[in-house]
Amino acid sequence: MNNRFYLLLANTLVASLTNSCVWYALTFWLYLETKSVVATSVMAGIYLGTVAFSGFFLGSLVDHYRKKTVMMGSSLCSLGFYLLALLLYSVTPSSVFSNPASLSLWVFILLGLLGAIVGNVRSIAISTLVTLLIEEGQRDRANGLVGTANGVSFLVASLFSGLAIAFLGVFWMLVLAIALTGLVVVHLWTVSVPESEIVVAEPDQSASTRRIDIRGTLKAIQQIPGLLALIFFNTLNNFLGGVFMSLMDAYGLSLVSVQVWGMLWGFLSLGFIVGGLVVSRKGLGAKPLKTLFVANIIMWTICVFFTIQASIVLLSVGLFIYMCLIPVVEAAEQTIIQKLISPERQGRVFGFAQSVEQAASPITAFIIGPIAELVFIPFMTSGAGVELLGGWFGTGKDRGLALLFTVTGLIGLVITLLAMRSRSYGILSRKYQQFSTESAVAESP
Questions:
Q1: In which band, very low, low, confident or very high, does the pLDDT at 1 lie, cut at 50, 70 and 90?
Q2: Residue 271 near residue 323 (C-beta atoms within 8 A)
Q3: Do 278 and 144 contact (CB within 8 A), yes or no?
Q4: Taking a C-beta distance cutoff of 8 angstroms, is the pair 230, 423 a contact?
Q5: pLDDT in tens, 331-367
Q6: Is the N end or the C end of the chain the one with fewer CB atoms within 10 Å?
Q7: pTM for the full model?
């Protein structure tokens, strides 16, 4: 593979790791300072909502400026926000930050979050750089490496952000983030990217229209029959996956102590890395769309059974396999878009997919709690579920959550099987094979 790609991927890994650590660390710090669950919920809502809707704009930036320029601008913006946050923290009395209604507290939090959020443009840029730097037959493996890098970032950030707050404090955590971001900027400066010109798909558009070109992006997606259906299929999967994101901690902590659960998550996060490494070595096969759907079938089948009994072993094995398959699904979607969408449009399409798909999980997080509390938990504690299922499934609050997971898995499995038999699946599969054949003919002597 292209050595430049390895250098850019390593640079993006350090930047992503730094930004993720800041986000996690600020979450821990905010709760420790204010003891307010509402404050951390608001912070999470701001972060997830901004990430979901910023993809449209960030994708347009990637398409209309050189990739290296966008990545450099991202890191410089992060550096600026972190410096401002450190300055504000240094001049503000510490007692102010214990008040969840403090304006200074929320300005500080917003500065830190903005520093982390502007780094999300790199996830779009690195996917377009795969198209630019990697030969077509190796792109699925390169996407696997991107998944591995994301897994490493998630694992290290989740493990060490809490330690950073505990042993360094938020001041030195920001100092470390500023130092690492500075190193990222210096290193990126030394890496050359052979991008000779910026191709603007619609040169007659105004500058303001091109900056956030949702209409043009939808037009490009609709020109590939079935691609929009694939994006919304992944969106629906994320919507259902939000059930696990919202309630898995509560279920896991009903089985083991918080210490064991924390260490277990550190181990389970290795699944992201394992899955990405397998894709980077083996690829996705000649039919990545089929690979994507098979992976989803396995994932949802696991979700049906991994809480069927109150067993931490069963849960852990299921979660590990589930996490191994996430990079497979992500790499498959990236490979399909890289094949079917012209390079000058890929940034906007990846940004559109990021915005639409990531918007789903926060929505689920808001609505699934009341559903669990008002429907599933009563059903398995004092309702009809005790008689119908309690004899073999178990009863109680935790079994109510387990039943919700099982039902979610069944819904996801049915949707996946129906989608695989849909007209959109067949059209998109044939279109991908057509593009593959045309590419092979064009490359043959």
A1: low
A2: yes
A3: yes
A4: no
A5: 999 999 888 888 888 888 888 887 777 777 667 766 7
A6: C
A7: 0.80
